[in-house]
Amino acid sequence: SSDVCSSDLGTQIHILQTGSGQLTISATTPATTTVLSNGATAASPKCRVQYSAITLLKTATDTWYVIGDVA
Known about the structure:
The protein is mainly beta.
């Protein structure tokens, strides 16, 4: 949500899963924030395996795309 974390359009956040537990990305307020990916669960993408890297890309006020090694 832009209320919690203000950032400019085009902001990128890079994430590397270093632990063995699968990392999941999700919106804190799903009703107002959209998370999209090509993962099996588009709105709650996960890193595929340990040492997978993903990037969050802000494309609109409350819209983020998750790209990279997504499960």
